[in-house]
Amino acid sequence: MVRIETILQFLIAGVALLGFIPLAPWLDRLPMVLVLLALAWGLYADRWGKPIPGHMATPLAIIIFFLYAIRVSPTNLVAPAANLLALLLAVRLATPRSSRHHLQIIALAIFCLAASSLFSIDATFLVCLVLQLVLAAVSLVFLTVADTAPDTTFGPGQLRTLIASALLLPLATAPLMVLFFLILPRTQFPLWNALAGASAGATTGLSDHIAPGSSATITENRVVAFRAAMPAQDPERLYWRGIVLNSFDGTAWVRKSPPPETPAIPAPGSITQEVYLEGIRSPVLPTLNIPRQLTGIRVLASPDLVFRPAVADRGKLRYGVTSVLLDTVAVHRGINRTFYCQLPPFLPPRLAATGRRIAREATGDEHALALVEQFFRQQKISYGTTGLPTGPTALDLFLFEKRTGHCEFFATSCALLLRQAGVPARLVGGYLGGTYNDLGQYYVVTEERAHVWVELFIEERGWVTVDPSRWAVNFTQARIAPPPGFLKRIALILDTGSYYWNVAVINYDLERQFSTANRLVTMSRGLHLTGPGRWIWPVLLSGATLLLMPFLTRQYRTSREARLVRKVLARVRQVYGIVPTPDTGLHALAGELNDPALCELVERYGAIVFQGRRLSRREASRLRQLCRQIGRRKKGLHSNEECD
Amino acid sequence: MPLSGRHELLQAIQQLTRKHLHGKERPLRLAMVALLSGGHILLEDIPGLGKTTMALALANALGLTFGRIQCTSDLLPSDITGLSVFNRETSAFTFVRGPIFSHILLIDEVNRAMPKTQSALLEAMEERQVTVEGTTYPLPEPFMVIATQNPTEQVGTYPLPESQMDRFLVRTGMGYPPPDVEKEIIQSGSIRETLRHIPTMVTAAEILAARAAVAGITIAPTVVDYIYRIVAATREHPQVQTGISTRGAINLAEAAKVQAYLAGRAFVIPEDVQEMVVPVSAHRLVLGGELENPDKEQLLRVIIATIPVPRS
Fold first, then answer.
1. Structural domain includes residue B165
2. I need a labelling partner for A207 at 20 to 30 A (CA). Which of A283, A369, A584, A630 fits?
């Protein structure tokens, strides 16, 4: 046997925990620890000890309130509020509870969950929401029971029955939830982050500012940058184009407004991708190199094939890309060579010397490239992300001393050497490779896959993609990932859930809805039944329905008599405001009310039903007429006795 | 006519209550119910509330013979049934009929008789015949016993065992008359004398015809189900040791039929059952021992209130 109070404690603790979990990452440490302590204390106190008395908790709650209230400002509104919510929840959890307090905890937990959606929209939210709603519904049923009979205990059978009936509540709301899902407007961004413009975290990965030698190590960031739904491709050719950096100031590559040019990308062999971007860390939209077209959102396109969203949205985005897998972009009417050959006033001496040598020896652009590659291969440089050269002479150290570095070093050195040789060159920042998820048929690209490579301009050909990092002695081991192991596979399967959350919930919009409807229409049009199949299915289906009907309706069928009685009772309630107790018979009711129409009705009805007959259709309709006259005929025509 | 004799019977009840038995309508009506369904009635109340008066009035008004037995602890079975007496003239034993050979038999203070006599009496009630010295004598029809007992007296009594209680179709109290009526009665004095002059309003043949009419009254399956649910509920109730027996259920149905007959209906409605359930069933309940001074009628009403009435 289980005490109802114990069941309630656990249910409420579950509700509170589900509200707390999604909010926890955004809370200060103190409220976070306090909530957990209070949760544990509440459960402990119910069992063995005494909860913290309310007269101590209330002043505490007030102090906490003011503590956080003074922190609130127009720019810092939600974080204190969330912390305050969590603290109030903690206070409520640790203090003695009546039914009212249980309800308060449920409300606070729901608020906590709601508050978490201001910070981030994650699939966890949905899971917690669904679980919390179910638990809250069950808790409410138990609360009602506890309120009327506080000392109730349950056996396992009773508990099962009660829970099953309690679960009907959320189940019944499921259709409504689906409906609301379809019609309610939604946001693709966590509201608070979008409003306040708060940064979603450290910006590692794709960056619009490349400064090799600014730090000794690179921490790999495994956060998902984006997912791209598309057929699997050759991993060697998976270059995701992000930003183009075209100017080196001596320490860092930056982006200057690119000179006008007209790239010509052929249409044949194009691949379409559906990209789901996880919060924009850099204000460019990654696309598979080389992108032809971007659809789905309004974008600002640059001539060097860099796309930015027209509205500075933050958060999750979805767009379609059409790309062609090429390593050359033809450009009509040439380019601004001087712009792409600019060099900083100072270059590391040995690098400058090498550049001058190549410029001297090169017979043309392509030969210069070959000489640069030859130089890199001779130096036997390895690819690495630790023990990196730093300081103003980082590039020199990279090429001649340490001989280790990452893509930024390779690309920077290569581009500088090419520019010295008079070959226009620019850096392209983006991502390399991706993990293909066979289940969802999409690529997952994490921030650690951020990469920089070089584009150089060769007359008659155009911008040619060259990845100098490939000249490293260990590039294959360092950058090309081995096939996924067991754990990685599981991670991929889990990632599928996240992907469909984005596809189906976050980025679900009217357009989707229409396209689904269209697809259904097209499918139904394509469904042409010919020959016997045209009528076999309808006949079979209707036959089965006819056969099943009696079984289906038997349980729910109400007799004509029962319907009439229900009508009469409804009428009586309407006219006299009386709901007879179950042990009041119709004749007794009629005698009590002394209503002539009701008396007549009951007499006629009783004469039929209590003689063991069923009502005929005509009798039923006559009685229904009488039913409508209840309360209309004059009283006193019948005496009580006659009524009986 | 399907409800033959109803009019006369109702008029008799009305006449009796109006002229002779002020405020006794309910016991009188219940006595009529017992008579028409072929059962017997147990009046349980203190002396002096008109039990005998009612029995006499009823017998006279219905034109029936009336017998009376005053029970004492030395009352023998033969005092009731009668006995064979040797007749010198014919040199043979002739059977002298006892008071039981009457249409209406009043047994006063039935709990004062010793168990042997009680059981002989109750056997006669059930069998409607008396066997003395090997000869069986049928009792007259209609035959009804009106037994009385004083529930407050304990000394020198032999309380009827539960099995004997079950043989009474109806048990009821008399109750004090309402103040106004009682004052009137006090003023007019005892009416025993006038009872002898009550005119006969109904004949025995009419009563038998009415019994036949009652037997023809329909009782629908839903109402039977209702009776069953009541009976089953009394059997399952935690405070009840022994619920209503099947005989009790049969009696309830019969009483409900009479109630329907008296109300002028050819069918039983649930309200008839409700009306009859307490007088017919309350005395059959055997309650658990731990209950001090239990009120069976009250308990039964509580049980009835929990059972939904069939409405369709």
1. yes
2. A369
In the predicted structure, residue A219 carries a pLDDT above the cut 90: no
Residue whose pair of structure tokens reads 């307090």 in the numeric block: A101
Same domain, B195 and B237: no
Asked if residue A288 lies in contact with residue A241, where contact means CB atoms within 8 angstroms, the answer is yes
Tokens of A196: 């306040």
Mean pLDDT, residues A483-511: 70
Q: Judge whether B1 lies within some domain.
A: no
Tally of domains in chain B: 2
Its domain, for residue B33, covers 6-208
Contact A610 B308 (CB under 8 A): no
8 Å CB contact of B309 and A606:
no
Q: What is the mean pLDDT of residues A614-635?
A: 83
CB proximity list for A184: less than 8 A, separation 6 or greater: none
CATH of the domain at B274: 1.10.8.80
Whole-number pLDDT of residue B224:
93
Sorted by where each begins, the domain ranges of chain A are 2-192, 224-490, 560-643
Q: Nearest chain B residue to A560 by CA: give it.
A: B312
The secondary structure of A552-578, three-state, reads HHHCCCCCHHHHHHHHHHHHHHHHHCC
Note whether B312 contacts A587, CB cutoff 8 Å: no
Residues β-bridged to residue A450: A431
Question: Per-residue pLDDT for B73 more than 90?
Answer: no
Residues of B with CB under 8 A from a CB of A: 218, 220-223, 263, 265-271, 274, 304-309, 311-312
Q: Which of B263, B270, B306 sits opposite A585 (nearest CB)?
A: B270
Question: How far is Cα A398 from Cα A405, in angstroms, rounded to an integer?
Answer: 6
Say what angle helices A99-119 and A4-23 make with each other, to 10 degrees: 20
Q: Which of A559, A583, A610 is closest, CB to CB, to B267? A: A610
Contact between chains at A610 and B222 (C-beta distance less than 8 A): yes
Residue B310 included in any domain: no
A642–chain B Cβ distance below 8 A for any pair: no
Check B269 against A612: CB less than 8 A apart. Answer: no
Q: Does residue B227 register a pLDDT over 90?
A: yes
Domain end position, chosen among B208, B234, B261? B208
Q: Where are the alpha helices (DSSP H) in A120-243?
A: 123-148, 156-183, 191-196
Would the pLDDT of A636 be above 70? no
